[in-house]
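It would be a great kindness if you could assist me with a short task in structural biology. The matter concerns a single protein, recorded as an amino acid sequence and a row of backbone structure tokens. Kindly check, if you would, that the fold set down in the tokens agrees with what the sequence suggests. Thank you for your consideration; the sequence and its tokens are set out here:
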Amino acid sequence: MEYDFEEIRCYKNEEVHEVLTRLSEEKQFMKVLSTIYPLLPKEVIKQRLMSFNSNYAFQTDMVYPFLQYLEANMTKGIKLNGLDKIDVSKSCLYISNHRDIILDSAFLCGKFIEKKMNTVEIAIGDNLLIYPWIEDLVKVNKSFIVKRGLGARQILESSKRLSTYIADTISRNQSIWIAQREGRAKDSNDRTQESLLKMLNMFGDGNFIENLTQLNICPLSISYEYDPCDYLKAKEMQLRRDDPNFKKNPQDDLLNMETGVMGYKGSVVYEITGSINKDLKKIAIETSNKNEQITLVTELIDKRIHSNYTIYPNNKIAYDTIKQSKLFSGEYTTIEKLDFERYLSLQIAKIDIENKDVDFLRSKLLEMYANPLINQLSATASYLEEGE
């Protein structure tokens, strides 16, 4: 079946000039750019915007310098490891854990630009497209749209179209980044949603394993030393605990985006874990039951992501605190522990809500930092059991 991708696709190179010209007339967008590039007069920014005729040129000359600024000022450095584990001449579907709304994919593209590689297309939920200019901006930045909040029949059609778009894009030798789940894992307990794999399977005529093999899935593990949105996530957890009907509004999403971009992240590491195609063949031999295959592939992606985290002293301190253990006490100093305790106190102090439950908020922040290590220990034990 032929699908019309017009509503969801990113902009083509021949559309870039027109879209950026339109964006240059958007007061809100220009205000954002003036904040990012305070030394450039508005007219110079406008002229630069209207000079681009491709997505990649816009990304390399307009977006990348800002990513360099963020790396220099808001991180201790960003590493990309594991390129030796993939064939860089072939397209991949990168499936990763999800820490930051904007930067998970943006920093990855920045590192690819440094390696003179093509950037990825990026899956983004339409719930974040709060203003029309945001949709223009993300689509000119090689993002395609994932529709949210649809009815049952609409979900099926939308999922088939999305699956076909992803497969078509991969077949054109254009890599894609997509998060392993809808929305960020608030507690950093990263788990791949089976519904994602079911959606990815919808495009093909083959069986589940054959279809996924065509996509060349490559799990990607993202580690942040500090999550600038940790206190916002903890706040949301208390609000949901106190009111099961609590829902974030668009302003909450904007605050999360701004805090994630402009907050301090410490060390950031991207670990490419290689294609899972060989593992998919093993799963096909192990069972022909589709539901069992879906579960096994989900577990495989999770295990790849969990086992490839970079573990920081914060994670070890949080683990020992939650478990009331001294398992990692020899791997961090008293100063590091005091610094982390102070950090937690400062983050909790930023939370302004009624009936503020400090003990609950602290426990949730500790969970966020302990869970990557808990999951890595589990994944590593599992690999040892399998003799891998």
In short: The mean pLDDT is 95. DSSP finds 16 helices and seven strands in the chain. The longest helix spans residues 358-386. The beta strands are 75-81, 93-96, 121-125, 143-146, 176-179, 217-224, 266-272.
